[in-house]
Amino acid sequence: MKRFLLINGGILLFLAAIVGIVAALAHFTRDPSTVLTNPCDPPCWYGIQPGEMTSVRVLSILMDLPSVFSIRERMRRYPRSDELFHLEWRFGRPSPDTLGYAYFDDDTCTAVSILTHGSLTVADAFGRFGEPELMWMHTEKAGAQEWLEVTLLYSSVGIVIEVDFDLPAEGASNHVEIREESPVWRVTYFDPGRFQDLLDSEILINERSRNRPGDLMPWSGLGAIHYTKEQSE
Q1: How many domains does the chain contain in total?
Q2: Contact status, residue 176 vs residue 224, Cβ threshold 8 Å
Q3: Range of 163's domain?
Q4: CB 224 within 8 A of CB 177
Q5: What are residue 53's phi and psi, to 5 degrees?
Q6: Which residues touch 103 (CB under 8 Å, ≥6 apart)?
Q7: I need a surface site. Which of 85, 123, 130, 155 has the fewest CB within 10 A?
Q8: CA 92 → CA 70, 79, 88, 97, 102, distances in Å?
Q9: Which of 151, 139, 141, 148 is nearest to 176 (CA)?
Q10: Does residue 5 sit within a domain?
Q11: CA angle 218, 153, 129 (to 5 degrees)
Q12: DSSP 3-state assignment of 114?
């Protein structure tokens, strides 16, 4: 019986080692985020220039990118249901990014948003763009899950970075720590000439402007961020 247990334990350890090696290889062989491999300067993303390009031109560029799949059109519901609101696409392997969006107003691209889902860190983003000018934060809740969305804005360059933090249990401290290794959830490239218009939408900040408590704040650097939980309506 003892020999049987030892053999089975050895097999389980061997399988665990194989799984670990495969996971490590997958991590090291995947490409970096498209935010880091982007060949043009912000607010351009892979040749898509917010503020200058029509949907036809943007679609043409997307169709030529080998990591882009399943491009879909989403129409604006109001005031015109026949007007394009955004193009949406999936990223395929080896790109670690998950989804992308190109937003339009009167058929002109205004912003491109990349859901990185932690495929780059705050240090990666700051190394690419420098440190932001402004920040805004708010808490979100879905079921039992609560998190803090920290939005970092480069108004003159045309970049937004979103960093999300799971909130601690009720009664714990009301601060989180933003560090160099903190994962980035989303990066948005936008036309800086339309900063105020886009700020009033939900494209730059994932919250309706009329529901946003407080104002944009100057970026104060890495470290502790204190927050107040928002009350559910």
Answers
A1: 1
A2: yes
A3: 33-226
A4: yes
A5: -110, 145
A6: 85, 86, 109, 110, 111, 112, 113, 203
A7: 130
A8: 10, 34, 13, 8, 17
A9: 148
A10: no
A11: 110
A12: strand
Residue 101 identity: Y
Q: pLDDT tens string for the chain (233 positions)?
A: 545 444 544 554 544 445 344 333 334 445 899 999 999 999 999 999 999 999 999 999 999 999 999 999 998 776 666 788 999 999 998 899 999 999 999 999 999 999 998 899 999 999 999 999 999 988 877 777 778 899 999 999 999 999 998 876 665 567 788 999 999 999 999 999 999 999 999 999 988 777 676 678 999 899 988 777 665 54
Cβ count near 44 (within 10 Å):
18
CA nearest 126: which of 226, 28, 225, 35? 35
Q: What are the tokens at 65? A: 């990118």
CA dist., res. 147 & res. 177, Å (int): 13
Burial readout 86-96 (b: 16 or more C-beta within 10 A, e: otherwise)? bbebbbeeebb
pTM of the model: 0.81
State the Cα angle at 167 between 162 and 171, rounded to 5°: 150
- Contact by Cβ (8 Å): 153, 160: yes
- Six token digits for residue 199: 């700020």
In a domain, 162, yes or no: yes
Residue type, 209: S
CA pair distance 123, 146, nearest whole angstrom = 25
The answer to whether residue 12 sits within a structural domain is no
Residue given tokens 């939980």 in the structure block: 229
